[in-house]
Amino acid sequence: MEISEQKNSLAKTKRSSFSLLAISLLLTALASNPFTFAQEQNDPRWVTTWSASPSTLPGEDDPDNSPLGQTLRLIVHSSVGGSSVRIRLSNAHGNQAITIGAASIALQSSGSSIQPSTSKPLEFAGQSWVSIPKGAIVFSDPLNYDLPEMTNLSVSLYLPEDSGFLTAHALSNQTNYVSSDSDQTSSMDLSNRTETAAWPLLTAIDVINSNSFSAVVVVGDSITDGWGSTLSANQRWPNHFTRRLFADSSARKYAIVNAGISGNRVTSEGNSLFGQNLQARFERDVLALSNVTHIVLMEGINDIGMSPSGDLISAAEVIAGYRQVIARAHAHGIQVIGATLTPYEGAAYFTAEGELVRQNINAFIRSGGEFDGVIDFEKALQDPANPSRILTEFTTDHLHPNDAGYAAMANIIEIALFD
């Protein structure tokens, strides 16, 4: 028995030594590997800091839409910052698998140039490249990265092969760049570049922040997308609201995430640049984002102005769409804040009959009792002397606000709605 016990004791000692050696080697490897995963993909602290909803559908003739052996450099603006980052790429509307040969993230300097020493390569399941199947999305591996809040980022994607039709957010109101050739994902600036208004492939950026933020997703059309604001200046109303929120020391902070698509409708679709109707895209563009607790819904003016088949849509049809969105959000424990539709008399598709539909929709938003709160964007923009019109100093075309109009929208929001 004594000899047996000595053998068992010796065996335990060896196993312990091997275990300690294995742990030591693992820690050494992790410390020396720059591509070590920053966090697990299922870490509950992930929150989306930026998003872009895919809008382009196959059918339009876009010369920038099939790069071959070129690098895309996409400029985006964060809301909350973090210490770990991952990106999402989508081939939702593609007609074939797409290969990403290399990818990187950096802080923008100006134009297509990046700040020195801020560029880091992104990996996908430990590889520098990834193939995205037709209709699929992919996440990059979590990366340790000091990402500041409210900062312009540069995401570079190299497409070494024929990519076919690229899923994209067509009208970004931001200048983005395409190189003439080669992998330039780590270049300080892109050579022989062209410009594009689209955000191809990139649909979200998630971060981990020690403050464990949650996200407010703003859902809408071109007025949420920022059409009419100064190009590449981050003057959309969600940008203004983010700056206001973070300047208020007493306010609870949220990521403010933009899921607007210019031309989008609640109930139907038409132009291939304007995306699928809200109810069809809601799961992908809103519910699939990370740590969403609130939605601001402002959409419906295009349903009125671009009613299908020439028959004016009824308020009841748009409201039925709202009810579906509310029900699906509530099923996920997400609160929905309704935002009134802004005036549009003087716009190209204005009609007196459509104005009555708009007023009926707004009456439901304000007093229907089905939203968890209300933001009165109509009140922020309307001309007191002519309530069916936007104040002249707040608009570019009687439909879309300008920078001052978008700021007025952000300023009317009651921050307490999100408490």
Concise account of the structure shown:
With 419 residues, the chain is an alpha+beta fold. Helix content is 26%, strand content 26%.
List the helices and strands and how they pair.
Blueprint lengths: L1 H31 L14 E5 L18 E8 L4 E9 L7 E3 L1 E9 L2 E2 L5 E2 L8 E3 L4 E3 L3 E5 L4 E8 L8 E2 L6 E3 L15 E3 L2 E2 L1 E7 L6 E6 L1 H4 L11 H11 L7 E6 L17 H10 L4 E7 L2 H5 L9 H16 L4 E5 L12 H16 L5 E3 L1 H5 E2 L2 E5 L12 H10 L7
Parallel strand pairs: 17-18, 17-19, 19-20, 20-21
Antiparallel strand pairs: 1-16, 2-11, 2-13, 3-9, 3-10, 3-16, 4-8, 5-6, 5-7, 5-11, 12-15, 13-14, 22-23
Overview of this structure, please?
It is a single chain. This protein has 3 domains: 1-33; 47-203; 214-418, Rossmann fold. By secondary structure, it is α+β, with helices and mostly antiparallel strands. A hairpin with a 2-residue loop joins strand 5 (102-110) and strand 6 (113-114). The protein has helices spanning 2-32, 222-225, 237-247, 278-287, 301-305, 315-330, 352-367, 377-381, 403-412, and strands spanning 47-51, 70-77, 82-90, 98-100, 102-110, 113-114, 120-121, 130-132, 137-139, 143-147, 152-159, 168-169, 176-178, 194-196, 199-200, 202-208, 215-220, 255-260, 292-298, 335-339, 373-375, 382-383, 386-390.
